[in-house]
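Help needed: design a sequence for this.
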């Protein structure tokens, strides 16, 4: 039997065959696409979740100082020029010191939290300008030798404490003894302190309350105050004991000077931030607490208080107090006067 070619019938068969192939391929491709979309959605969800976990600050909209730092890529650190060994200049434009080490640790933590590099800018502050410069936004974070007290808490926010000191006297050694052993010995004498400090307020209040007739001299900074003492224009310098140790160490003859007197107050230093910026304060607190727990604070203390420091290779030999050890073990943002109440 001869096979008869039927063009229309064959075209129909080929069309039917092609249609079935296309339908199968379409179903197969659709299945592949659905699988791919499901995988993509799962990966995207996992990536978003990981990002939120890794950067808790980004889980909600940034505000205040954190937003400012994220958008500008910079942070402005307030520093001192002569608060040895906390924050001071030692021949270079960048500050150094125990408190500055803490500032840099905070910056490193912020880089991780915000997921971006942060450029550091420095702004010199004094005892009199430090609070206004934080308040008006010029300085984002100030870590130096600023006492956290109830009065200042009305103006700025404070981190957890970074140091604890007592306010005492630096005076000359005479016949192996302090020339002026304690505060009552200063009646009618020239006594210097640094303007804008709690020591200035305490000294003036003591002078008025006890009618001691002291001539209280307020120097612009710690360096000028010690120069007045060393030159004989004052017989004693009242300030935080750790700062007095720094000034004594840089004297022409350190052995000629001694720290003496009953502490008139106990002070806790903190880093200043703008008031009512809770998110930034928490970020700073978390960074400092992490720095304490890591043990890096002990290395920094040894470097600045127990070893020769720049620029002259002086050694303060100032042992860590039990109060500071407790503050590091149990961080708090309370002022010393709040802790006692």
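Sure. Designed sequence:
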């Amino acid at each position: 039997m001869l096979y008869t070619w039927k063009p229309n019938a064959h075209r129909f068969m080929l069309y039917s065959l092609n249609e079935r192939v296309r339908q199968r391929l379409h179903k197969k491709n659709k299945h592949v696409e659905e699988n791919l979309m499901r995988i993509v959605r799962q990966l995207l969800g996992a990536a978003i979740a990981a990002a939120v976990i890794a950067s808790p600050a980004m889980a909600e909209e940034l505000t205040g100082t954190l937003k400012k730092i994220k958008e500008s890529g910079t942070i402005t650190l307030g520093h001192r020029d002569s608060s040895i060994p906390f924050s001071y200049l030692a021949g270079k434009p960048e500050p150094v010191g125990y408190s500055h080490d803490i500032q840099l640790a905070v910056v490193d933590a912020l880089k991780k939290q915000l997921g971006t590099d942060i450029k550091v800018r420095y702004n010199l502050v004094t005892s009199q300008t430090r609070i206004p410069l934080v308040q008006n936004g010029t300085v984002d974070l100030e870590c130096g030798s600023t006492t956290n007290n109830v009065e200042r808490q009305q103006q700025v926010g404070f981190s957890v404490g970074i140091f604890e000191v007592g306010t005492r006297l630096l005076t000359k050694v005479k016949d192996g003894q302090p020339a002026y052993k304690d505060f009552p010995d200063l009646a009618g004498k020239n006594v210097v302190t640094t303007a804008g400090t709690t020591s200035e307020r305490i000294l003036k209040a003591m002078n008025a309350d006890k009618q001691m007739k002291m001539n209280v001299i307020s120097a612009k900074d710690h360096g000028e105050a010690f120069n007045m003492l060393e030159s004989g224009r004052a017989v004693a310098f009242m300030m935080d004991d750790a700062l007095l140790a720094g000034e004594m160490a840089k004297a022409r003859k350190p052995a000629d000077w001694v720290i003496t007197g009953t502490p008139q107050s106990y002070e806790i230093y903190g880093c200043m931030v703008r008031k009512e910026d809770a998110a930034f304060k928490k970020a700073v607190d978390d960074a400092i607490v992490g720095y304490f727990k890591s043990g890096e604070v002990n290395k920094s203390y040894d470097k600045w208080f127990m070893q020769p420091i720049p620029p002259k290779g002086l050694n303060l030999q100032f042992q860590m107090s039990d109060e500071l050890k407790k503050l590091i073990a149990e961080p708090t943002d309370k002022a010393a006067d709040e802790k006692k109440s």
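The chain has two domains: 62-164+268-340, 166-266.
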